[in-house]
Specification:
Helix 1 crosses helix 2. It is built from 3 helices and no strands. The longest helix is centred in the middle third of the chain and has 19 residues, at 15-33. With 61 residues, the chain is mostly helical. It has helices at 2-13, 15-33, 35-51. The protein starts with a helix and ends in a 10-residue tail after the last helix. The chain is 79% helix and 0% strand. The model has no long low-confidence stretch (mean pLDDT 86).
Length: 61
């Protein structure tokens, strides 16, 4: 497993890896700023937070 991480780190530090990381970062920023994506995130957040019920009791089995 360590060799896989070494390969990933080597790629991330290479010029091609830096380009891929930069492109992925730009795409993520575009998605984060998109109103449709923001609405989807807020909808999921409301469902997750609302589903808890606020009691903190967790699930019953």
């Amino acid at each position: 497993m360590a060799s896989l991480m070494n390969k990933v780190m080597q790629f991330a530090n290479s010029p091609k890896g830096k380009q891929v990381v930069r492109q992925a970062t730009e795409k993520a920023q575009q998605l984060a700023n998109d109103p449709k994506t923001r609405a989807k995130i807020e909808d999921v957040r409301r469902r997750v937070q609302g589903g808890r019920g606020g009691s903190g009791s967790g699930t019953t089995h």
